[in-house]
Amino acid sequence: MSRIARRFEALRAAGRKALIPYVTAGDPDPDMTVPLMHDMVAAGVDIIELGVPFSDPMADGPVIQQACERALRHHVSLRHVIAMVKRFRERDAETPVVLMGYLNPVEIMGYDAFAVAASEAGVDGLLTVDLPPEESHELVQTLRAHDIDPIFLLAPTSHEARVKRICSAASGFVYYVSLKGVTGAATLDVDAVAEKLALIRANTDLPVGVGFGIRDAQTAARVAAVADAVVVGSALVSRIAEHQDDPERARREVSALLTDMRAAMDR
135 catalytic, yes or no? Predict the structure, then answer.
């Protein structure tokens, strides 16, 4: 059983929902990422999504695009991100870590080389936002051979046949993108999310995480009432951007928001 599966099993037994933060690795400075990961665990998160900086993050809005730009100024690569996970594992052997990004860096590194390095470092999952399931077989097989969960996105426009196809390729959990558009967009309709989750759950036993549009503790709690996991990204990255010249303040702001979300979800 993967670290991700064990975490969701423990959460189900405790009657709790997963809180999954996303931050871009290397933003605003590579030295901040690993301490921030530990801060987030202390704030009560269950799984960490670590964004791999990319020069053309087409699924992301301005907030995460700018985070990628800040990280890339420090030349943060996929290999650097894997090394960050390895350093994180020196103190934390339990919290699952998912790398989230685009296929190009993985293809350049090579599927086998990536899977070996990521597995040895302690990476638990990979979400490549621009890889459709129809083209994923080779990468999925390689990841599974090294005990890394391939995680896929579902969208509001995903019809039932596509939901089945995506869920059959995924493991760990599936990520439902609750809004049409890029990260950081629009206002969340939790009733519409609940309706779509019923369709997804009819086609998979995997936990379903919901992301996009979750900005505060109140929204996190409302989503937690219908989903297995709450994914928050742009709200955290915005706080990092606001205090990018004061890393200690940025870390405190991220921790404070996650602490509030965790408390609201548990209530």
Answer: no
